[in-house]
Amino acid sequence: MLKVNNLHTYHGFLHVLKGIDLEVLEGELVAIVGSNGSGKSTLLGTLAGVYLPKEGSIIYKDEEITNDGVQMIVPKGICLVPERRQIFSSITVKDNLLLGAYHRYQKDKKTINKDYEDVVEMFPRLKQMLDRPGGLLSGGEQQMLAIGRGLMAKPKVLMLDEPSLGLAPLIVKDIMMILRKLCDEMGTTIILVEQNLKAALKVADRGCVLAHGKIVVSGTSQELLHNPKVQEAYFGKSSKKTEVPFNTGKKEVRGKKLI
Amino acid sequence: MTRENVILKVDNLTKQFGGVIAVNEVSFDVKKGEIFAVIGPNGAGKTTLFNMITGVLPSTSGQVVFENHKLTGKKPYQIAKIGVTRTFQNLEVFSNMTVIENVMTGAHLTMKTNLFTAGLRLPMVVKEERKTMEKAMECLERVGIAHLAYKMSPTLPYGSQRLLEIARAAASNPKLILLDEPMAGLNSEESRQLIEVILKMREDGLTFVFVEHDMETVMSMSDRIVVMDNGVKIGEGTPEEVYQNPKIVAAYLGDEEEDTVYA
Amino acid sequence: MEKKDLKKIYHNSPAGPIIFTVLLFLMPVFISSNYIFTIFIMIGFYALVCNGMTMLTGFAGQISLGQATFYGIGAYSSAIVTGTYGLSPWIGMIAGMILGALIALIVGIPTFRLKGHYLALATLGFGIIVYTSFKEMKDLTGGSNGFFGIPTINLFGFEFNNDLRYFYLVWVFVMIGLIFSRNIIHSRIGRALRSIEGSEVASDAVGVNIMNYKLQAFMLSAMFASLSGSLLAHYVTFINPELFGAMTSIYFLLMVIIGGSSSIWGSIVGAATYVLLGEILKQLVPMFLPSAGGEFEIMFFGILLVVTLIYMPNGLYPQFEKLFSKFKKKKEKVQPPLQVGGDRVASGGENQ
Amino acid sequence: NSDSKSASGSNESDSDTIKIAGIFSSSGGAAPLGEPGLETLKMIVKKQNEEGGINGKKIELVTYDDKSDQNEAVLAMKKAITQDKAVAIIGGTISGNALAMLPLSEQNKVPFISTASSRQIHQKEDGTAREWVFKMPQDDSHAVEKLLQYLKEKGHSKVAWLNVANSFGTGAHAEFKKSARKYGIEAVIEDEFEATVKDAKPVLTRVKKAKPQALIVWGTVQETSVVIKNIRELAIDLPVLGSHGIGSQQIFNLAGDSANGVIFPGGRLIVADQLSDTDPQKEILLNYKEEYEKEFKKPVSLFGAHPWDGFYILVKALEEKGTDRAAIRDYLENNTSEFVGLAGVFSLSPKNHNGLTPDSLVMIKIENGKWVLEE
Amino acid sequence: MEVHSQVIQLLFSGLTIGSIYALIAIGFVIIYNVTGVLNLAQGEFAMFGALISISLINAGLPLWAAVIFSMLIVSVIGALFERTAIHPARKSSVPTLIIITIGCSIAFRGIAILIWGTQPQSLQPFTDNTPIKFLNAVLLPQSIWSIGIAILILFAMIYFFNKTFVGKALTACVVNPFAARLMGINPEKMSLLAISASAGLGALAGIVTSPISGASYDMGMMLGLKAFVAAVVGGLTNAPAAIAGAFVIGILESFTEGLWSSGAKDVVSFSMLLLILFIKPEGLFAKASGKRV
Ligand SMILES: Nc1ncnc2c1ncn2[C@@H]1O[C@H](COP(=O)(O)OP(=O)(O)OP(=O)(O)O)[C@@H](O)[C@H]1O
Ligand SMILES: Nc1ncnc2c1ncn2[C@@H]1O[C@H](COP(=O)(O)OP(=O)(O)OP(=O)(O)O)[C@@H](O)[C@H]1O
Ligand SMILES: [Mg+2]
Ligand SMILES: [Mg+2]
To answer: Which residue ranges does the record assign to the ABC transporter domain (chain A) (predicted)?
Structure first.
């Protein structure tokens, strides 16, 4: 579906992506994790055409899209839900969602309304505030809106940059479920960037760990979860972090993973 | 809990936006040196609560008292002067400055230079600048982004910008810092380091109130927690008390039993 | 570990201003044309106004389209104090600056509650009101006919009555102004001002009294403009309201931007570019198009402006900076130029 | 000091050209007035040079556009004096600019022949003449007095006065206030309109209520046309009088039929063919008109005429006195009498650096796209 | 009765002036909405429209053809303006963009002098211009044209921005161009579209005005400034509100002029404006801005 070869991207003089090779199959959910500043957002940005790579190639369904700008990539069905939500702040929630379907409004006008209903159903929280300007929503509500808007695009490849950011645990679960369902039922290909390795790998088919602009480890979720190298590279030395007891330190309630 | 210990007192605070009651008669006390968490589902009113405490939004009713100062009705800069600063959920770094200047601006209140002494660049100004710069560097080192000091702040990755905001808030020698989702965008290792930073600052006498959705952080860092839902306070207590309260678990955490791996 | 040295953030060396001043003040040794001096005097007037505006626009991010008002207030204060009441020009100058600052304060208090373009409009509107008052208060200002007979400046019996002397007078003021405002920019005050442009809420949250700082910047810029107006009045000895209309305000903003508002030096560069470009076109255009009149000049003027700003959106000064840094021996690596506005995406969200 | 330095430059008698500077507003708000002036000056200098120049020396004309801006005017003046070292300067299209320029001519002792009209240009506050400044157009007071004379003859004693809100209008307004009483005329309403007026009906509704016997609209072409059109639209059926500033063909275009019947004090130039043959100006007026219209393919305008007068007065002085600035000044002041120019017959004197009278103007009526001499 | 007719007269005048400002203000707002640029060259489009249509009519074209052609020509000028000046500088800061538009307006004026000279010109009224009497006040058919066109466009704008997808997409472009691009909206194309459309509308404003107040190369600046004012009074981001703002200003001006003094016109209307701004800092008809922290 999407094939990335030796991708190099720069921000000005800063060499951020240093040769990424990645292949994503149709209907697959791939998680990309990595520490702060490792280039995750840059990678998604490059795939979506926001940044142009200096070197390497991106091939989508046998078609080279390496140097196509966002404008040409979006209509092909590749959609990015960006970092920091980027909602249209002075536009109502409803119109925000509808604008998500902009690139296909001429082609299938009829289905848009149905999709809109579906998306609103997925986020009951948003249902109460459809006429409010998007910028007045709470952080998490904005995040839902951004995701919802991405879903409205009905893309073939959906990329999400830290979708769980700012969302309550309960909602994160829902979202992950929705993503999984999208893969399974609609055959959408999903690339998911997450800070939280566990949460991401839980839903993903496969995962890659990005460090300093390179993919250092990749494999199926199960493999990664149990790969000691990953544990070390990613969590630092003590992988027991999740076992940190409560501050009061009296009782070990924590045995179950929270997220 | 003795009264002298209470540093921040939130009393029946309410905020109404048109028809929406975002915060509904919320009250709680924060003790000196405490790390206090506010949790709750999205849209519960946590950020709005912070906005009222720091004066960004006027409250509809109720009041906030910090030490002996009534904060209600004061402007943010006045509240900062009293010793309360904050970070922002949606990141508000000064994008036209380098990282270190951001932090030096954070130290604004600790400085005395005025228009005329600055214009004439009296020796005391130079001295103060130097001191502030050292202080700013120290703050950056603390949160671990000193190596980025001379970069323009918008080029920092998201996570580092969060750290920058915390360093900036700390630079003003506040007594209380409010953190709105400090861990968002940090991975577990990074959050852990930040927790340590915060715990260390607490030892220096700082008090923290923070909002966070990352339960690991909340559970491991906070002394006490207030839980909000739909603008109302639905619970309060130590992490374990909260964690065992079925009402809270249902409203916020979800049923923990099924620990499904979806894939 | 990073070196903790202020020089890494602020280039505050006195070398720049000193070299510039020396070169400038030596100019009369080589040039004796009064015309050239007049040009430099004009540049000086504009540079002084732009200097204040750079602080306001470039650093506090507030667009004023009413700066000619203060320029006019200074000019008329001086004219009235010296021409009508026969007092010393210095009193006029100081009176003008105080009045300018006071008016800036009064106007600023309601105006700075407004944001962005509303502020631009409010200052524009205020400018038009004052401009109309200059015209209508005929007894005081002479109305549209103008104000005659403004005396020249004298200092302890030394008359600034020719271009050479005036050249020195004006540029002493300009350089003092430049150093003063550069010092401000490189200090707590400057950071506070810039933080307002960066993010008002955050600025407020770290304890910057935004209103207070905006007002200070506005008042200071008003004082600079007023001072410049006073100097103008004593130089041309005749003023009329047309000098202080909305177009003049717009041209001031133009100079600030073309010079580059990220540095105080930009104000001098901008003023010089504006005046020199006009003069050079006046010289060149008839050489190539002998039959052409003024229309060609303004056309080229407009086109050159646009082209310059397209290629150098941060104004001309950063180009000079690059040039200088080439000459300088590389003691320390020079900071990369600010990427102001270069990537609005990264700062996210709102774009208004 | 530097004054003597720059003044000495002009005395180089060995140079084989005579430098004259022309400073006009050929762009900006006053461009419609400045352009014909500049064109005329270029035309007659060329002609003079073709005819052998002055005492065998060619005239070199340097011209500047002051963009209708006072600062630009000052800069241009400075340049003309100190760089070009012009013997004399002709120009200053609008009064504001001329007023800003003249201190330079006084300081540097260079004859300045103004083509802008304010009386303050050639007269100091105390009524004495400025030493180095001469002014070719009629004073506003001449035009106003001519108008008042006319009104008195017609027996209109209650009038409405409207002027454009710039120095052209307010200057005349001051003159009007000064002289109206003398002619037994009273203004029942006095007001202003903007030079950029789009619709003057609001003011006119008030004028109408004041019930005047005649209406004076003092402005230049564009704004006057708008006001006149509005007067007709409101069906205010009163005599309308204009200023000498509307004596341009443009008024026919802009005001169309509304202009019919408007009467104004104007120079003889535009009604030259209707003048009686005994009129001393008739011949030169017709000649100028013919030459200008041939050269530029557009009708003459009164504003073009002033540089003509200035130039030929100067030529006489140059022929007699060479390029010595002081001598020229003295000659201009003392030896120009009964000079027949386009604007009128000039008699300059040390007391009067304009030398025209109200009779240099005639009342002209607009009739179906034509100028008609009234009287 | 006398007073009545005066008030009505003033109202007519105010509406006429207001409609002229409105036509330019709309273009102003559209450009602002789509590109975030405060286009101070907007008035020059009116100037081009007026002068081009006069030339076309003098060349023998019938009025309707001249109107259409000159609108088209000015739209092309607008498109060129967008491509050569706005587009390459789109990432610059707000003041830089403002100054670029000022630079363009200066250049446009220079071009206009080159082509048409400095003399003002005039256009015949669209239709027979016998004043219509109404309670002793007169209304000119040309004013009706002008007011009518402004109102027609008002409704068109309301429909376009609130009801059509493209209208919403246009708004999205300025609110967040980055996100707009991610949605497949092409801000560059929108910007080209918006600027040439506004240029066309500006041209129309100029054409409608010239029978009323004549046309000359320098008519643009003042019109542009007043339109700016109108747009801001309306709230800057909302085309219908800008039109309303323009009428408010026109009427205010005409009433001060008619009831008090013309000299005070600008003072009164600007003081009033400042007052409005101080009371309602976001403009008279602004919607919630959607900004919070
Ligand atoms: N616009 C930009 N200009 C310059 N450098 C940039 C820009 N955007 C990102 N960078 C740099 O590129 C590197 C990678 O950034 P990126 O945002 O891709 O990281 P990330 O993995 O998404 O981090 P995070 O988890 O914090 O979001 C960082 O070092 C950052 O400083
Ligand atoms: N200015 C406003 N106008 C209208 N409604 C608002 C405004 N600000 C906030 N709200 C609403 O108030 C509610 C509380 O918002 P708040 O931002 O405080 O939530 P939160 O608890 O911080 O949520 P999150 O965890 O998602 O950040 C939300 O439903 C939000 O939509
Ligand atoms: Mg990222
Ligand atoms: Mg929140």
So the answer is: 2-237
In angstroms, the separation between the Cα of residue E265 and the nearest Cα of chain D is 9
CA B107 to CA B217: how far, in whole Å?
28
What's the rounded Cα separation, in Å, for the pair A183 and A196?
A: 20
Are E242 and E230 in contact by the 8 Å Cβ rule? The answer is yes
Q: How far apart are CA A153 and CA A124, in angstroms?
A: 19
Chain E residue with minimal CA distance to A84? Answer: E179
Per-residue CA distances from D2 to C25, C122, C163, C239, D119 (Å): 17, 45, 8, 24, 30
Distance (angstroms) between ligand 1 centre and the Cα of A81 equals 16
pLDDT (mean) for B209-231: 88
Are E103 and C303 inside 8 Å of each other by CB? yes
**Among the four given CATH numbers 3.90.226, 3.40.710, 2.80.10, 1.10.3470, the one describing domain E3-279:** 1.10.3470
- Phi, psi of C152, rounded to the nearest 5 degrees: -80, 165
Do the Cβ atoms of A180 and A30 come closer than 8 Å?
no
Host H or E run for residue D223: helix D221-233
CB atoms within 10 A of CB C33: 17
Q: Ligand 2: which atom is nearest the Cα of residue A143? A: 26
Q: How far is CA A141 from CA B57, B232, C244, C330, in A?
A: 19, 18, 51, 51
Q: How many distinct structural domains can be found in chain C?
A: 1
With a CB cutoff of 8 Å and minimum separation 6, the contacts of D125 are C148, C149
Task: Name chain E contacts of A98, Cβ cutoff 8 Å.
Answer: 165, 168
- Structural domain range at position C287: 21-333
Q: Which domains are delineated in chain B?
A: 1-83+174-263 (3.40.50.300), 94-168 (no CATH)
CB contacts under 8 A, E 139-198 vs A, are: 165, 168-169, 171-172, 175-176, 178-186, 188
Count of domains for chain A: 1
Q: What is the CA radius of gyration of chain C?
A: 21
Q: In a 10 Å sphere around its CB, with 0-12 CB exposed, 13-18 middle and 19+ buried, how is residue D328 labelled?
A: buried
Chains D and A touch each other (3 or more Cβ pairs < 8 A): no
* Nearest Cα to Cα of residue A103 among A130, A71, A81: A71
In tens, the pLDDT along C260-295 reads 888 889 999 999 999 998 888 877 877 776 665 556
| Best residue for ligand 1 mutational test, from A7, A32, A40 (most atoms within 8 Å of Cβ) | A40
Query: Phi first, then psi: what are they for E248, rounded to 5°?
Result: -55, -45
- What are phi and psi for residue A85, nearest 5 degrees? 70, -50
Rounded to the nearest angstrom, the minimum Cα separation between C337 and chain D is 36
Domain ranges of chain E: 3-279
ipTM: 0.83
Dihedral, A136, A142, A146, A147 alpha carbons, nearest 10: -150
Please give the residue range of the domain that contains residue A13.
2-226
Residue carrying structure tokens 């940090």: B186
| Chunked mean pLDDT (size 10), chain E, 293 residues | 75 89 88 83 93 93 93 95 88 83 89 83 79 78 88 86 82 83 85 90 90 84 83 77 86 84 76 78 64 65
CATH code where residue C285 lies:
1.10.3470
DSSP string, C143-185: GGG-B--PPPPEETTEE--SHHHHHHHHHHHHHHHHHHHHHHH
Tell me whether residue A90 is in a domain.
Answer: yes
**Residue in the structure block whose two tokens are 């991405």:** A150
Detail the DSSP E strand segments found in E105-229. 132-134, 137-139
Q: Which of A75, A99, A153 sits opposite E172 (nearest CB)?
A: A99
pTM of the model: 0.85
Contact E254, D186 (CB under 8 A): no
